[in-house]
Design brief:
The complex is a heterodimer of chains A (262) and B (267). With 262 residues, chain A is mainly alpha-helical. Chain A has a domain at 37-77 and 117-255. Chain A is built from 14 helices and two strands. A two-stranded antiparallel ribbon of chain A has the order 1-2. In chain A, helix 2 runs parallel beside helix 7 and helix 8 (142-173) packs parallel to helix 13. Chain A starts with a helix and ends in a 7-residue tail after the last helix. Chain B is mostly helical. Chain B has one domain. Helices cover 76% and strands 0% of the residues of chain B. Chain B has helices spanning 2-15, 19-46, 55-67, 69-72, 79-87, 90-95, 100-129, 142-173, 177-191, 202-210, 212-216, 218-224, 230-260. In chain B, helix 2 crosses helix 7 (100-129) and helix 3 (55-67) crosses helix 7 (100-129). The longest helix of chain B is centred in the middle third of the chain and has 32 residues, at 142-173. The two termini of chain B are 33 Å apart. Classes of the chains: A mainly alpha (262), B mainly alpha (267).
């Protein structure tokens, strides 16, 4: 395990050093990431200029929710980007080379990319989080801080799992499937509001199919003081289990891999 | 003119071949549309009096936006054109007895039109069948419907003229990513793709409506809802024509200058 981690660290340092050869391009892309999510923030800002609250959530509370989801997503995207661009690896037949090396495929695919440019998004999430924490008037306790941390862990796991599914499906389709964007980008985009905004039925779907509610809605209820039950703190950790079926699908895909050659 | 029409036709029919991609796109757009509508429903229930238009009008706005996403989406640019400039294949294009600007322009229009045509019909049909507050309504009148179509075509041309400006800047910067992301975010926001322009505060909205970005999607969608009087529609369409002319003129002159000093990359 330690050797694997060291190897992973080595992979990442190579990727980052490579990226730093093109500093201007790196900075521009990071800035671009910042701008794209800044639009979402401005959208929330202007809607709250007009409406002040939605389903009992005020501006700061929605921002808190948005910042945490954005962080979960950017962290997952940063380190699991290799899965996001996996279709290229399958289509070009590059994956054959991965298979013959004496290391796990997941380690190699993860190590092939490390999207540091997502720091642009991350930076914005941090700024918004700080603003929301200062203005939301929450009484912070150790439990609530833990809830936020667990949300980040669980969120990273869920989004990484989705990227893994996306990659696993490439074994069968060769192309990346556009509808998967609904589950990843869609969750980032619409996770900016607490999920009960979309109605009870949507909330139930988001608990059962992909456990979004476990990394957003339920712990948020605890943080905002709407429920006192400490079970809600640990629900995000339960979402980590989502990785199991994703991994199963990936194994199934690897076993059915037929090289496309080139 | 005839050769550009051929470029258009070639691309248009090529685009119609990608039906599986279109089916996937349709499913995604439906999902997106439903989620958008649910967001606005929540805001409507929070404070109906703060709504700038009727709820049904917002729903119609959202469905049209989704149905014609291939027309309005600022991020839809042609990777092929960027590649041509970056890898030096532009040399071949320059040899042809055609204007690069017009060729790329007609190709881009064809791509967007064929994509939109494949996607819009099923989306519009299903959206129209949805029950009352969540369904697509008919245009306010026959006149509004007609002006909507005109404004839609003009909007398509304006947005293509805008993307042409982005392509042409690639001649000068070679690496288009930064410019591209920046332009896309600006357009998305000011055109009303993030939140519809009527939801902006009055003063900001007044300025936004004069900018070229409003000419891209806000004008056709707003015309359809029937919220504009005849005079306002005329003004909006004239503004579209003005921005189209301005951007085409700027794009062509920039393109001509770039062609004279173009460096062919690669080998």
């Amino acid at each position: 395990m330690r050797r694997k981690l060291r190897l992973y660290g080595h992979y990442i340092s190579i990727v980052i050093r490579g990226m730093m050869q093109y500093k201007a391009s790196f900075l521009l892309t990071a800035l671009g990431q910042f701008l794209v999510s800044f639009n979402v923030f401005l959208g929330i800002y202007f809607l709250f200029q007009r409406f002040h609250q939605v389903r009992g959530y005020n501006y700061s509370e929605v921002l808190l929710c948005y910042a945490i989801v954005l962080m979960e997503f950017s962290l997952a995207e940063m380190w699991a980007r290799g899965f996001d661009t996996f279709s290229g690896l399958v289509r070009s037949g590059e994956f054959d080379r991965v298979l013959v090396r004496p290391q796990g495929e997941i380690l190699q695919v993860l190590g092939s990319r490390f999207e540091l440019t997502r720091l642009g998004r991350m930076l914005q999430a941090v700024v918004i989080l700080i603003y929301a924490v200062c203005t939301a008037g929450i009484q912070w306790t150790a439990g609530k801080v833990c809830a936020v941390l667990f949300m980040l862990v669980g969120g990273m796991a869920v989004f990484s799992g989705l990227f893994l599914i996306y990659a696993a499906l490439c074994f069968f389709t060769l192309e990346g499937l556009e509808f998967m964007n609904m589950l990843t980008d869609g969750a980032r985009e619409y996770g900016k509001y607490p999920l009960d905004i979309y109605g009870r039925r949507a909330l139930r779907l988001a608990t059962v199919i992909v456990p979004y509610a476990l990394i957003q809605y339920y712990p948020l209820q605890y943080i905002l003081g709407r429920t006192a039950s400490p079970v809600y703190i640990f629900l995000p950790l339960l979402a980590v289990l989502f990785l199991l079926p994703c991994y199963g699908l990936w194994r199934f895909g690897v076993r059915h891999y037929k090289s496309s050659g080139s | 003119m005839k050769k550009y029409y051929s470029f258009f036709r070639l691309r248009f029919f090529m685009g119609l071949q990608y039906r599986t991609a279109a089916a996937a796109g349709i499913v995604t757009q439906f999902f997106w549309g439903i989620m958008e509508i649910l967001v606005y429903r929540a805001f409507y229930e929070a404070d109906a009096s703060a709504f700038p238009m009727r709820f049904e009008a917002v729903v119609t706005y959202i469905w049209l936006q989704q149905a014609f996403l291939a027309v309005f989406g600022a991020w839809i640019m042609e990777g092929e054109i960027f590649d041509t400039i970056r890898n030096g294949n532009i040399a071949y294009e320059l040899c042809r007895p055609v204007s690069i600007y017009q060729m790329w322009f007609s190709r881009s229009v064809a791509n967007r039109a064929s994509k939109a045509l494949l996607r819009c019909v099923p989306i519009l049909a299903v959206a129209a069948l949805l029950p009352s507050p969540y369904g697509l309504r008919l245009p306010a009148s026959l006149l509004h419907g007609g002006v909507f179509l005109l404004a839609l075509v003009l909007g398509l041309l304006v947005i293509v003229a805008f993307t042409m400006l982005v392509y042409v800047t690639t001649f000068y910067t070679i690496s288009p990513e930064g410019v591209r992301i920046f332009c896309v975010s600006v357009v998305e926001f000011f055109a009303g793709a993030v939140i519809p322009l009527p939801f902006f505060p009055e003063k900001i909205r007044y300025i936004l409506e004069l900018l070229p970005f409003a000419a891209m999607q806000n004008v056709p969608l707003w015309v359809y809802s029937g919220s504009m009087s005849g005079e306002e529609m005329l003004r909006a369409v004239c503004l579209q024509v003005f921005w189209l002319a301005a951007m085409v003129a700027a794009g062509r002159s920039l393109c001509r200058r770039a062609e004279k000093r173009v460096t062919v990359q690669g080998g």
